[in-house]
Amino acid sequence: MTQTDRRGKTKKSTSLTGFLAATVLSSLFIALWQEFIGQTLGALLGDLLWISAILLLLGSLILLIAHAQRGAPYEPLRLIVRMLPNSPVTGYVLTVVAGLSAAVLIAPLVWPVLSPSCPLPTQLIVVTAADSEAVLREAADVYETERREENGGCRPVDVLVYAAGTTETVRQTLANGWELPANTTEMGAGPPGRSYLVDRSLGARPHYWIPESTVEFLELVPPEDGRVNSNGKLGDAGLDYLGPTRMTPLVWAVPDAFPPDVEPGILPDGPDLEWARPGLRWTSVGRLHGAHQARLLAESGRAAEQVQAEARFLGEEGADSSLALLCRVGKWADTVALVSEAAVYQARSALDSASPDCPEGMRTDLSPRYGPGLPFLDHPLVRVLWEDEEPSDLTAERQEFERFLLDLAEDEDAYAADGVYAGYRSVTGQGRAAEAMAAEHDAAHGPQVSEWAARFDPVQWWEWALQADEAHREASEPATILLAFDRSTSMASVPQQFDAARTAATTIIGDLRAQDRFGLWSYPAGDSGREATAATTLVSTTHRDNLPEELIATVEGLAPTHRPTPLREVIRAGVLALEEDAAPGAMLVVVTDGVRIQDDRGLSQEELDRVLDGTDVRVRIIAVGGGAQQAADQAACEVGILPQLTGHPRVECRDADRGRADESARGVVEEARGGR
Amino acid sequence: MGGDRLFRRTAVAAAALCLAAACTAPGADEERTIYVATGQDVSGNDLYLNLIQEWNAAQGPDGYRAYLVVLPGSADQQYAEMVRDVQSGDPEYDVINIDNQFTAMFAEAGWIREIGPGWAEAAGVAPDGDSDSVLTQVFQEKPSQSVTYRNRVYAVPFTADVGMLYYRRDLVGQEPLTAGRSLSGILAELAEATEDADVEHLYIGQFARYEGFTVNTMEIVAGEGGSLVLPGEQRLADIHRNSVEYQALNLIAEGFADGTFHPASLEGTEEETYVRFLSGEAVAMRNWPIWYRRLLIASTEQDSGHAPEYTVEALPGALLGGQSLALSSGSTNEEAALDLIGFLTGARQQQVLYYCGGYAPTRQDVYVDKLSPEDAARLCAGYGVTGEDAWHAEAGHFLDTVRLAVDDAQVRPVTPYYSQFSEELSTGLHPLFASAQRGAVPLDTDRLEQIRTAADNALYGR
């Protein structure tokens, strides 16, 4: 009903005008507030909401009481009641207002309690090889998303994927209950004989192991009756072989200058060609390429040439993955890289060839060449069981994950250019992205890859790999290495330096074979006088089997404690000591940051060069990086006086910063065995 | 470092096999054995192991033996291994040294026990009904808060951590910074002071895709006066164009766009950042307190030219970090484990960790009863740590700086889903900052809203 006031305007039109004005003004106010001091509006509105809710609740409760007590003798209530229409609706309206106000006040308090929180996700851990880490992380992300969607928005599983070094690393650690052997150094006040250290720093204990090849599983669980034995036990760990997750053929990655009519086969010798392969002892790629040569030579009646074939790879053993090799051959124009098809694809399709792991850029212009006899990497899924029994929810999540990975092994969409396994092939040999690359470079053989995949027998290839191992061992000559370890204080300007130095030393020691000879020095011997320019003999040069048991502990116990760095003096002394030893092909290995700190001028470069001119001893410097002394664009081998030292042809330097200490050390050992 | 360490360990394994070195496997008396799982001791001085051995020696010939189980260096892998162990149904570790932000998760899941009353009894601290106060009688308040979940104490603070701002005093001048407590103000002052210096970047932090990204981002937002997660509420702040939070995130993005922030920050963890700062690639660095010791020791090794000088103060908006010792629910050696926890968090042990390793203490008394440089050198010599005079000369003064920073620090969101929240935040924001480096600024508010929603859900485990 419309009421009229004394000025003749209707209350309805007044209300409408007021409403519109209030709306416009409020909008303007909010807009201005948002524009200029918007950050406090939310907080202010939040506070206003609370205050309004409290006032509304109190007011509506008072009115409700008044409404319910209309006949009551209390004067204040009667005054309030006069303002309220005497209708049952009044009570309902007041009740609703009070209820809403109370709800606004209570909601934030009860919401967290009522809100259905998700259960904590199950943790699954996958250990794999360096080349597979990125691709498996992507697959794990897809899996987690799928499972979250299936599970009403809650994430039921969290998958961690990481790479744990070389094949050999994982095999040894698996066999040792995922513990690295603790050293026996006595430190502090502990009772003698125990170090009380359990070293699990390699990585989290895995639920799954996905190596490059089934050949690695066969190394731990030998085949039975020519077939893969699916269940094995290794120390504390049970290993269940579940089958391949994806495949990739091994290829020759050739430069443009490579003859167009040469197919992969027995490696041809040519003056203009170099060959590079990831380490036979460190990777399945290297091992299976070695097995391929062993097989071809044996089948063509040239088994006696296997040792010679392996000899060409001595000295190139450092690369611990296909991608690392493609990084290493970045600068070599005429090198054929023996790698996997997937690695070639990854290198060619990378947005940027340079990365923190490969600052100078990977080789991206190599073309894959296929051959019918080349084997495959099949990346098997291996379940690792550390306990006899595990909770049922963990088992259920394992089963889901296994199903996902094994389904993905056959899902052709996963192998398209935008799929998680782009560049790989399914277990049937299909892979759209890889096929496109093959068609681009080798239309004749690309389509046949699926037929070759069907014929791939990992057990057979494992047997050929054993032959290649043996040929590699025979090709090597005994090494004599004197290691001089820099323990000057400049080696501790950043923690990585000393860590890299220890890595290099322990890698060399770990690589020694029975016929090898080894000695260990540390320098300087002290801070002043003769000690400042001399080295301490920690272990005199002797055969590996005569080395003291605590050798590793000795290296681990070295600390950067003295200030001087008598680099030239130590090289001279080391060379002279090895000359006296008269071992053929002896090598002095100097682990250092290259920073020379001495109070006097010391031995000059000219004097050192004269000593080097008259010796056959080779000097290899493992440069661990200069820490504060190394500029951002400077290589480790360019720090301090290293460029002067390597000016002499008998001295060469290997960069061992950025996590490359082990690679450099392995390469140096192979060189000492007669490699290039 | 991780790669080197990993391969070194591998070589150790190989060598040990070759040389048939004796392997010190845990003893036969498994029932009297305690396993303490921890991340790596980054002091470089094997202090954790030394302390464990000290405790073992005190147990007598037939007493308990504790083993230090060193987990991987990566925080993500440490966390995964600890979760893996407790989810296995038969946990192996008795004591775990967990990052404080994961206390709520482990407590919520029942993987660790309420430790307050047992610890108070073992430590001789009188409980007075308030769970917090059991710890705060001995430890600092903020670290105590960070191990308290739903009014129960689940761990004992072992080491404190807090975001610190390091900068080059030789470039900036001897006077303290006056720009007030916002990072933007400090960056402006640093820029002005180092206008003529030959340093390409002003600031370096940890913005790689890991938990450090979350910490760095939340600190900058807090340092600009905002709060990414609303205090006392389990939700993220609205991020609209005029909000402080948006402006702070844009400060980071613009920092990457114009080179104020070192581009390597996007791939940098704590140690990598330290290396670059030490190499003179940035004027200022955000990092934890433990790097001050290394910085001082390393700077004394500069052999030529103008030696840099460093100073450090609390970072505006700093977050509390740190690790605490918790008792696994599966442990059958509760009494001995509590005794070990009490030992490791004792006053003398905290002094050893600080003066000989740079680990910031959690106990109040260590901040008060400071050691002279001579006493510190003497203490550390007993642990085979020598040649750290430069650090010992500054250690007492640095304690005051750390104490103030810890007192003012903000505690990270207390939620069982911190890991998921952190992952969502870094997964969402990292690509935006990486794009900013290629010129994509200001930040897209729609995309930020999506990230906010995802991170908000993650706080509830979704």
From TrEMBL, chain A:
PROSITE patterns: VWFA (PS50234). Keywords: Membrane, Transmembrane, Transmembrane helix. It comes from the Bacteria. The chain crosses the membrane at residues 16-36, 48-68, 89-111. Residues 480-625 form the VWFA domain. Residues 656-676 are annotated as: Disordered. This is von Willebrand factor A.
